[in-house]
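Worked example

This section walks through a single chain of length 201. The input is the sequence exactly as stored; nothing has been trimmed or padded.
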Amino acid sequence: NALHLKEQSAVESQMGSALHSWVSEIQKDRSRLEALAFQDDLTGLANRRLFLERLDQALRNCRRNKTFMALVFLDLDRFKQLNDSLGHYAGDQLLKEIGQRLMRSVREVDTAARLGGDEFTLILVDVQSEGGLHNQLTRLRASLKEPLEIQGQLIRPSASIGAAISDGSESATELMNRADESLYAVKAQGRDNFAIAAGVN
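Given that input, the structure is written out below as tokens.
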């Protein structure tokens, strides 16, 4: 009887251990799936879904705390040409590197996201002044332009950057439209620069 109980206890212990291991795996899988739902799989940046959530949150915080934020849109210049000449692998390597540079350029409270293709965006919270944003975008532009080597080729990336400052009194769509207009103004003027749409329409 004692032997039988000991064997039963050992079996139960093994079953408990197996169950615990299985539950742990499920939790890990769920965490991975949740990360994938909000993360761009190539760069590790926030994806469009998380970007939209964070943008709404930032606008609400501005209204509540009477602060300012900035939305920054960024397109790589002539990315298609690089993709066509060096191939998609080289294009992916460049996108990953740009993602890393964007991550290094923002604080933890800010958000760097990839919307798709070579389109990136930053949500910068608690912006103190247009001058401060101007300085930050100047540093960002310099960081993005640092050359890198991909497949033995020296690449000198550049980007067109459009930004808009908001006090939270507009909708996410309105703010995105203003940042987009700034971006296209830069593209129309020859790319490789930035423009800021200050204030709210």
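What to look for: The chain is about 55% helix and 20% strand.
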